[in-house]
Design brief:
Layout lengths: L17 H12 L3 E2 H4 L5 H4 L11 E6 L3 E2 L9 E2 L9 H12 L3 E6 L10 H14 L4 E5 L7 H9 L4 E3 L9 H4 L6 H14 L3 E8 L5 H13 L4 E6 L16 H14 L4 E4 L9 H11 L4 H9 L2
Parallel strand pairs: 2-5, 3-4, 5-6, 6-7, 7-8, 8-9, 9-10
Antiparallel strand pairs: 1-2
Helix pairs in contact: 4-5, 5-6
């Protein structure tokens, strides 16, 4: 498929509906950011409308530690620089918003904050705990920076006991230098995920973008490397150029190819689940798919919530 025009399967739903309006208002009242808005996620219309919520209460992705990043990745539309001090009230603001919206599954992500002594790990952990204090049954997924691979900082996240720790490798090994900030790295990211698996029972997750010029054998190798690190969950999505300064799209990948990678990941390599499709992003239907995966494992969802409470 030529990269000169978008195919019909990449059409998105415009934001609408009462649920969208209410979430938008709650976020504004608490002065909070979401990655949905800051990164121009193509699924915002679906996820923030009534049709995009789950039966039990829905999922939202909060972006903490500001809306400017210390890194500059070629694929990302989040602004770089002009870093401000962290808001010490933000963890409680997020906890209040989660309770007010009534979410059963929360995804927390952040910008990179290499400028801070602990790169924001403590702030991340405080936010996890604030959510669990207010809503102990809520399942929490965190999509974390690499914290430059520092285990003492990863331990802060692990000790806060989220249900899923995600960190994205983003692309295949060959394209890392072109796609990501020089401070990031393929093996650094995989080592972060492997460390979480080695010292905890927390599920691990990562995401790969297609359409950046990768070859099939490189994608397969990435999947193999991730499984060897005992990563539980992987997602695939189409890279979409968010703005002119960002990297160009090399290929619009057909949905059939995404389905093939889902089958390879789940059926051949044994990932717990693989969400794969042109419009899939790391947190797309994260709660719904995670709960379904737990049920396939034979775990009762109430047992999972008990684990979330620390019972």
């Amino acid at each position: 498929m030529s990269r000169s025009r978008k195919p019909e399967w990449l059409r998105t739903q415009a934001p609408s509906g009462q649920e969208y309006v209410e979430i938008k208002q709650t976020l504004k009242e608490h002065d909070l950011h979401t990655v949905c808005e800051e990164a121009n996620c193509p699924n915002l219309g679906e996820c923030w409308s009534e049709d995009g919520t789950t039966e039990d209460g829905g999922t939202a992705t909060f972006m903490i530690m500001g809306d400017n990043c210390s890194r500059s990745c070629g694929f990302c539309d989040v602004q770089t620089g002009d870093l401000e001090p962290l808001d010490p009230k933000e963890p409680e603001k997020v906890g209040s918003a989660v309770a007010e919206i009534g979410l059963d599954y929360v995804v927390l992500t952040s910008v990179d904050r290499d400028d801070l002594d602990d790169q924001g790990a403590g702030h991340f952990a405080d936010t996890i705990r604030a959510i669990k204090r207010r809503e102990p049954d809520t399942l929490v997924e965190v999509l974390i920076p690499d914290f430059q691979g520092e285990k003492r900082l990863l331990d802060k996240i692990i000790d806060a006991n989220p249900d899923v720790i995600a960190h994205n490798v983003e692309t295949v090994e060959r394209l890392q230098e072109w796609v990501r900030d020089p401070r990031a790295g393929y093996w650094q990211s995989i080592n972060v995920l492997e460390y979480v698996d080695q010292v905890s029972d927390i599920h691990t997750k990562t995401s790969i973008m297609l359409g950046l010029g990768e070859y099939d054998h490189e994608v397969y190798q990435a999947l193999t490397d991730l499984r060897e690190a005992n990563v539980d969950i992987v997602t695939f999505g189409q890279y979409l150029r968010p703005s002119a300064p960002n990297l160009p799209v090399e290929e619009y990948v057909h949905p059939h190819v995404f389905e093939t990678w889902r089958q390879v990941a789940e059926e051949e390599l044994g990932f717990l689940y693989c969400a794969s499709g042109p419009m899939v992003r790391s947190s797309y239907k994260a709660g719904e798919l995670f709960v379904e995966a737990l049920l396939r494992e034979g775990r009762d969802i109430e047992d999972a919530r008990a684990t979330a409470r620390g019972d």
